[in-house]
Amino acid sequence: MIENPNEVVTKAILRLVQVPGLDRPAALITLDNGFDHKKPNSFGPGGLTSLDEAITAATEADPAFIALTGKPYIFCVGADITGMPLISSREQAVALGEMGHRVFARLRSSTIPTFAFINGAAMGGGLEVALHCHYRTVSTGAAALALPEVAIGLIPGWGGSQILPNLIGIVNAATVILQNPLTQKQLRPKQAKEMGVADALFEAADFLEDSLAWAAGVVRGDVTVERPEIERKDWDGVLEFVKAMLDEKLHGAVPAANKAVELLALAKTASFEDGTAAETEALADLILGDESRASLYSFDLVQRRAKRPVGVPDKSLARKVTKVGIIGAGLMASQLALLFLRRLQVPVVLTDLDQERVDKGVGYVHAEIEKLVAKKRMDEGTAAKLRLLVSGSVDKAVFADADFVIEAVFENLDLKKQIWAEFEKIVKPEAILATNTSSLSITEMAAGLEHPERVVGFHFFNPVAVLPLLEIIKGEKTDDATLSTAFEVGKQLRKSSVLVKDAPAFVVNRLLTRVTSEIFQAVDAGTPLDVVNVAMDPLGLPMRPIALLQLVGPAVAYHVGETLHAAFPDRYVDSPNLKRIVDAKLPVMVDKEINPEVVALLEVGDKPLTADEVRQKALDGLAEEIRIMLDEGVVAEAQDIDLCMILGAGYPFHLGGVTPYLDRSGTAEKITGKRFLADGVANVRS
């Protein structure tokens, strides 16, 4: 077994506890790495060894039952992924799989009843060790319950793929193992109980006491746990449907997903020993695969770099925000109002050209609050408070005491300059002036103001409530106090903020538009829309290009393209066919198919490309643009490019965002002469 010098060992701490109604004590094993909930429990070689020793000691004590639980808020979040990059051979990967199986199997095969008291987050190997126990309780306060391995290029490798479908059925198991990871969802405690993952659900306040009493009832025979017989006749049909959906969505780009389907199929008839042996082999293959290495790199970006953005001024410079002003009351502005209101819980005021627009914006916020209450995601007391905090007025004087003012109006530089010139005379001198522009220059927007140093870009992604990225753009004169305040506000909004230099279209829109530009060059040359639409399929991107164009809106895409064409005419084309689509105001997609009326509009050349050629042109364009952006200092490092593409554009973990794939495929060196990441940074093999 490979040793990991960086492992934070999760110790399995055994104590014998007296439980009323039992003549022998229970053996309670608590998983605890010695840190608070911000550093969750995980299983590396050291942690597995400690658990193995605790099970031995517990068994020797001959208790009434053995129970496993975690430290406050955390049960266990799975394998220690810091050790994954150290695995350099298949033998090491196999050894890791076998060790987990051997230790966990002791709970499954124990002649003494075993229980898992899932008091907090249980993910991956943490949920799998609970599944090995004979019985499970779960706390209403358990924040995250999941088998997320497929999302990071792996499979549940310590029994999950074999135990779960035989516990809760193939449909539910496919949801937990495949659908949830690929859509970034987790089980709630109530769902876990309803599915049968847990046998009992208890309130968080008295969870351990209630779980011990319930376990004692099971041991005495007072409590009977009934589990339904698993239906097997539709097993194969369900998996055929799942495989078809995966092929449609991922186009074979995520080997872990297909491997998980194979393991779920095996679970129908295979012995547990054969099934877990297949898990070990699959895990060993995937750990050393490119997609897993890139996925772990992505995971590290999202979990670490996103929480510690590079280049941010000291937070002591940040100003306190006690009131927010929003210029505009359209859909984007109203979404921003709701977000600021919920996260900051300070007065938020909207303004627009007339009272009707203002009332509509405030009405949107009220309606969304009502929806949250109806879904029990907000209590009525909080809702009443937020209703009182949001207001709207056509009188701009209400902005006089705002600390943070953000505009979300039409993307027109002259309009935005006019707005700031007007509002600068109204707001107090230290108020932050933020713009939600998607492509326009912050520096130009601030030009002519008395205090250009307080203007900052604050670019959200739509839908605002869902996408976690916030591009914070520093203009030439933006000062440190403004930047520090912007990042502190971003943190309060629970967004992952990246510092970006003031450059056309910033990061995400610049790169997505470069892809669109390459694709429409191919269309203009004669490549059919249905060919360009499937060209990127082998990458497993979240949306095909034409579907993405429909989502963004052809007019918006064309506007950003115009901005970039003006800045970089040699790399961004002004496509006449995209202009025709915009002018026609027709939907690009109808019933998930390309609109034939749009196809009829196109005027194309006689040099069509194949799908492979279109894809390579798009990748070449991405590589060239990223190298230029890094040379220009648009962001600090390639890792920030990847973080932006993952969080703002939904680029998949298995690509590592984008630069690891460009390195791995050889595109980076072919186009730019060098790789984006140092060898080993993304743990991808050339």
UniProtKB/TrEMBL annotation:
- Residue intervals of the 3-hydroxyacyl-CoA dehydrogenase NAD binding domain: 323-502
Domain spans labelled 3-hydroxyacyl-CoA dehydrogenase C-terminal: 506-585
Keyword check for Iron, yes or no.
Answer: no
Q: What's an example Gene Ontology biological process for this entry?
A: fatty acid beta-oxidation
Record's signal peptide? none
Q: Which GO terms label this protein's molecular function in UniProt?
A: enoyl-CoA hydratase activity; long-chain (3S)-3-hydroxyacyl-CoA dehydrogenase (NAD+) activity; NAD+ binding
In what pathway does it function?
Lipid metabolism; butanoate metabolism; Lipid metabolism; fatty acid beta-oxidation
- Catalysed reactions listed for this entry: a (3S)-3-hydroxyacyl-CoA + NAD(+) = a 3-oxoacyl-CoA + NADH + H(+)
Keywords annotated in UniProt:
Fatty acid metabolism, Lipid degradation, Lipid metabolism, Lyase, Multifunctional enzyme, NAD, Oxidoreductase
Pfam families (UniProt xref): 3HCDH (PF00725), 3HCDH_N (PF02737), ECH_1 (PF00378)
Q: What family does the entry list?
A: Belongs to the 3-hydroxyacyl-CoA dehydrogenase family.
The name of this protein is: 3-hydroxyacyl-CoA dehydrogenase
Organism classification: Bacteria, Bacillati, Actinomycetota, Actinomycetes, Micromonosporales
